[in-house]
Task: structure prediction
Amino acid sequence: MSSQTASEPWRLRQKPGREVEVVVFDAYGTLLDVHSAVARHAARLGEAAEAVSREWRQKQLEYAWVRSLTGPSRHRDFWTCTADALRFVCARHGIADEGLFADLLDAYRLLSPYPEVPAMLRAVRARGVQTAVLSNGSPMMLADAFGNAGLSTQIDALLSVEAVGVFKPDARVYALAERRLGLPARRMMFVSANPWDSQAAHAAGFRCVRVNRMAAPDEYGLADLGVPSLPDLTSLPELLN
Result:
């Protein structure tokens, strides 16, 4: 498995004539359940658990986007954004237990994959299509999460935005996948549960699939653009036929 630290493009074992040679996945919310960290400690949080998990995710993304928009000098990695977001949410809910804070943060390093993910990845690879992850996560976060989930052998390349120092949906992130994987975007399928991520990847030229686990309304005109929407990842390998 390759990482974002590689200095040379990581070339796929290309299959002549194949339309899609690699499926590039978002990590958080797509392969990994971002709410599984709080779920492990829900009893300690009581009635606040659902709100804490939802707000933590919202603040995490907000902090990442604001740091991107305010320039390179303000960039901090996704682990810092995750910790800062949790600190804010704990303060907002009056959670002063430092032990709980540490346990929640540690749990985020070891998020659970969605149930269908292991079998789906095996099915994709069984079709001769390779797999990659393109994520806001730092290299440490991605290595820990996919190693803990037992998925490291099912992912051919882990790519972190830290290689370009800016978060999604900046166009430089999607260009990173082309550069590191050595393929044009049109030869890759990009899969994300985040509609803003799908919109940006589509604009960058990727074939896109949206995972819509909550049956949310269409956003960014993705349906009109012909982007398939799946309730989970179970049937994704069938789209590669």
